[in-house]
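Per-residue structure
===
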Amino acid sequence: MQVEGAVALVTGANRGLGKAFARALVEAGAAKVYAGARDVATVTDPDVIPVQLDVTDHARVDELARELGDVTIVINNAGVAYGAQAVGGDDLDAHRGELEVNYFGTLAVARAFAPVLKRNGGGALVNMLSALSFVSFPQFGNYSASKAAAWSLTNALRTQLRAQGTQVVAVHAGFIDTDMAASVTSAKIAPEEVARQTVEALRTGAEEVLADDTSKNAKAALPNDLTHIYPNIQKDYDAATAATATAS
């Protein structure tokens, strides 16, 4: 994919990783970068074009696809993490919220912009996923489910859109140093590094980015996840549960 001279749309581009994606595209020579955000006033990069977009508003997604007919790269970055566990909590609102943005939002944008990409020669569709597409922790159970669903969707989109010449890229990473992971004390990758690797993947025609050791190790362990991953997760979860019970 030729990034120089391209016209890109980045969802959730007002801060964090989305802002880094938009900036990386500008610096890579994109002719135009549309920065999608629910509140356009929060887009502060002077080199991008703010556009109002809430990916859960599917009518607005469709409208924007009609407005931005020159787009050749779409980066599905918008995402939320509410910490919804599979069991616990008062209701399912947080679970639905994560799925509405992380899965259905990604799907809505892909459906709306695939014809735009086709008319413009194929272009590229990038879906920001997670190392948690491959492995699930109890405290992030529903988030993992939403990202696993989006990963499966990405693979289906790649197959379906290949004939129209669209490069579909899945991007996975562990904790990224953004507001979403502000409370995390584990190692984090810089959002600028994830963006850099993604731009490089676009240029080289790659279909997947495993941005850090966390995502690489998680995917490599998939064939033996029940023996190599989940026993340790179970051990840590049981210890944390016991500590909480003792403290209370």
